UniProtKB/TrEMBL annotation:
The gene is folP. GO terms for molecular function: dihydropteroate synthase activity; metal ion binding. It comes from Candidatus Auribacter fodinae. Its cofactor is Mg(2+). It catalyses: (7,8-dihydropterin-6-yl)methyl diphosphate + 4-aminobenzoate = 7,8-dihydropteroate + diphosphate. GO terms for cellular component: cytosol. Its EC number is 2.5.1.15. Residues 13-271 form the Pterin-binding domain. This is Dihydropteroate synthase. Pathway: Cofactor biosynthesis; tetrahydrofolate biosynthesis; 7,8-dihydrofolate from 2-amino-4-hydroxy-6-hydroxymethyl-7,8-dihydropteridine diphosphate and 4-aminobenzoate: step 1/2. The keyword Magnesium applies.
Length: 284
């Protein structure tokens, strides 16, 4: 079987830049609803070092109200077409709706980033197969509307997420999705307490060792950082940078961020240090 193209090389993660073309996303909602502004931001992120641009047209922040597929398509498809026509960068569509994914893939996307783990829309798997798309399978307890009401796990969260991944991987393979097309995301902030999120980050290497699949983690600007550091807004960037340094050292394959330029610098510096450490061991 061909190895996934999304494994990190030499502790250097692929940076996924977040492009929310929504009016209500938790951090940058409303900033990129204009097509020209969205495409310009995508270009800037690519120039700063993002290898993947993740385009989303429906907010998944806690308590967010869902939008219909037509609205979602009207937000993301023109932007994806413009990006695909201008830039040599991988495009991901952040959606739980098969019709949105289908139109996005036809417009130039090649990854489906589904926060439901491809559970909410049963046709999503057939769309992924038809377009031979890579798929991000994320763990989420509940839905965006209720996931943070009272997150609770009966056992150790790492085991529960791993059990979920076991089930979803088996299902997708049974449906004809090749294993080398699967990317795993433990779902930071999606039905998790502050402690749950910290546990996932602290033990992220476990998922790598157990599943031997690319691991994507999206900690950027999230509330667990704010609660941990008593920080809001731009001050969460520093907590995000610390998390990304740790994730880089742990071998995370893809890191999803808002501030591409700054986080590329962080991950590149950590990667360089680890290269020197490996070189020293070989020379010694």
């Amino acid at each position: 079987m061909t190895e996934s193209a999304f494994f990190s090389k030499s502790n250097t993660p692929l940076i996924m830049g977040i492009l929310n073309v929504t009016p209500d996303s938790f951090y940058d909602g409303g900033e990129y609803t204009d097509i020209a502004a969205a495409v310009k931001h995508a270009q800037e992120m690519a120039e700063y070092g993002a290898k993947i641009i993740d385009v989303g047209g429906e907010s998944s922040r806690p308590g967010a109200e869902p939008v219909d597929a037509q609205t979602e398509c009207s937000r993301v498809i023109p932007v994806i077409k413009e990006i695909a026509g201008r830039h040599d960068v991988t495009i991901s569509i952040d959606t739980t709706k098969a019709v949105v994914a289908e139109e996005a893939l036809a417009a130039g996307a090649s990854i489906i980033n589904d926060i439901s783990g491809m559970r909410f829309d049963t046709r999503m798997v057939s769309v992924a197969k038809e377009y031979q798309a890579d798929v991000v399978v994320m763990h989420m307890q509940g839905t965006p509307q209720n996931m943070q009401d009272n997150p609770h796990y009966t056992g150790w969260i790492i085991d529960e997420i791993s059990s979920f991944f076991d089930q979803r991987i088996a299902y997708l393979e049974k449906q004809g999705i090749s294993r080398n097309k699967i990317i795993l995301d433990p779902g930071i902030g999606f039905g998790k307490t502050v402690e749950n999120n910290l546990d996932i980050i602290a033990h992220c290497d476990y998922f790598k060792q157990r599943f031997k699949l690319p691991l994507l983690i999206g900690p950027s600007q999230k509330s667990f950082i704010g609660h941990t550091l008593n920080a809001e807004g731009i001050d969460r960037v520093w907590g995000t940078a610390a998390v990304i340094a740790y994730l880089t050292a742990a071998g995370t394959d893809i890191i999803r961020v808002h501030h591409v330029r700054e986080m590329v610098l962080v991950s590149s510096m950590i990667s360089r240090i680890y290269e020197r450490k490996r070189d020293s061991v070989v020379m010694g």
